[in-house]
Amino acid sequence: TTADGGQGHELALWLKPAEQAYQTADLTGDWALQGLVTGDAPAQRPGWFRGAMQFAADGTSTISTPITDSLGTAPYSGSGATLALDAAGSVSVQGVLGFSGQISADKNLLVATADMAPGDISGVSGHSLLLLVRKPSGLATSDLAGTWALHLLTAGDAPAWTGWAHGQFVINAAGQFATRNLENSDGIASGG
Hints:
Layout: E1 2-3, E2 9-10, E3 29-38, E4 47-55, E5 60-69, E6 79-85, E7 90-93, E8 100-103, E9 109-116, E10 126-134, E11 146-154, E12 163-171, E13 177-184, E14 189-190
């Protein structure tokens, strides 16, 4: 996270694609979806959205967990988008101009930007950063135990706090967590 030299903060995610050819069928499976939307109100409505999607080998998707958002819009559980994955791992959505994504080398993370998502199905709309993470199977709460790194970005309009934070969390086998070494863009540090 960095200050952009202007009036806001930015978040940049870098993915190095694999040196192998990808195909749309590499998207097959269950994916968790998280998105952050920014922009100037009232033309755009900043916020977050989340849900889950299931992709078929041809790139078509269904919403497997309804998409909800920070504005409390009624959950959306209709049809999903159709994604295309080219040989270099670039992802596009049929019928959505400006959607640009990349899948990771291990094919378990997809990062994308767009000017949508999910404005036509949700209350939030604007410039979007989307993360899709392939859902692993067979996990238990105890699998989360350990020390985790946190990187967080909060976007919005005043008077709400906006900025970034990073630090560590320790999670025990029961799923309880404690903060360690948390610092934010205002220079405030906490934890121990």
